[in-house]
Amino acid sequence: MRIESRGEGLVLWSPSKVNLFLEIKGKRDDGYHELVTVMQVIDLCDELDIQPSSDDRIHFRCDHPAVPSDTSNLVVRAALELQKLTGHSTGVSMSLRKLAPVGGGIGSGSGNAAAALLGLNRFWDLGLDTGALHQVAASLGSDINFFLEEGLSLCTGRGERVQPLASVPLHYVLLMPRFGVSTAEVFRAMPPSLNKKNEDVNILLKALENRDFSAICGSLFNRLESPAFSLHPDLGKIKSRLENIAPGRALMSGSGSTMYVLCPEADVADSLEEAIAELNLGRVYRTASADEVGQL
């Protein structure tokens, strides 16, 4: 993750992600779902600024009105968990400039939490190794461990077990519709019959290994699309409209509502961005895998 000094503190560029594959294998005894997912970091980043505080409190603010500033926020919880683990008592002032969509299924909140863990470990000079940070991340949420590794990864368990994969440069055009989707409602709407036969992630992994764009597009999969589309039929219509004009394949990321189209080249993505914007279905983002553009 890109980290730079700013005044007496640090600034971190906190990335987002897309799910190239997401299968739900069942519900666990702890209430979470057992999943298999392949995620890739994209260069659609928020900016987390970490500065000294004049007291021993944790201060946090965000420029987006939908982002809470209390202990329900993952950035604040990450700071509190680090203090609890290490006994550190110095305060901090953190501000988040939100550039990625909020609640769109692209994990920007989890990325923010990972940025806080990495940044505060350095800012407070805690000296925690990667294993310790992963333990804290796993206690906070399912996608945060992925953002500690970045790149392209296969994640299992409830998402906390991360296996990094070889880098594959990819280009994306994202569409964030004018409505959000509740993750909890999507999982509740998923009937047991949906996961009686699991899709095989190895088909996608092989396509990624071979860098076969056509095979990658043919292997994209998200188990949560069906329940999300049942709750929000417009999402299915949006996907169809995207696939009518796209050279690749459209897929919902995470639990939605963000849809993306995978593109083989930068110039194709540039042209597609204009075409999707003309559909006037929501906010459009032209982005790429972060390792492709060297952002992080």
Description:
The protein has 296 residues and is α+β, with helices and mostly antiparallel strands. The protein folds into two domains: 3-165, 2-Layer Sandwich (Ribosomal Protein S5, domain 2); 171-293, 2-Layer Sandwich (Alpha-Beta Plaits), CATH 3.30.70. Helix content is 36%, strand content 29%. The strands form two sheets. Strands 1, 2, 3, 4, 5, 6, 7 and 9 form an eight-stranded mixed beta sheet that branches. Strand 2 (9-27) and strand 3 (33-51) form a beta hairpin. Helix 2 (108-123) packs across helix 3 (130-140) and helix 8 (225-231) packs across helix 9 (233-245). The longest helix is centred in the middle third of the chain and has 16 residues, at 108-123. It is globular, with a radius of gyration of 19 Å. The protein starts with a strand and ends with a helix. Mean pLDDT is 92; it is low at 292-296.
Question: What key attributes describe this structure?
Answer:
296 residues, alpha+beta, Ribosomal Protein S5, domain 2, Alpha-Beta Plaits, 2 domains, eight-stranded mixed β-sheet, four-stranded antiparallel β-sheet, 11 helices, 12 strands, 29% strand, globular, disordered C terminus
What is the structure about, briefly put?
The protein has helices at 74-86, 108-123, 130-140, 144-149, 183-188, 201-210, 213-219, 225-231, 233-245, 266-279, 290-293; strands at residues 3-6, 9-27, 33-51, 58-62, 92-97, 152-156, 161-165, 171-177, 221-222, 250-252, 259-263, 282-288. By secondary structure, it is of the alpha+beta class. The protein has 2 domains: 3-165, 2-Layer Sandwich (Ribosomal Protein S5, domain 2); 171-293, GHMP kinase, C-terminal domain (Alpha-Beta Plaits, 2-Layer Sandwich), CATH 3.30.70.
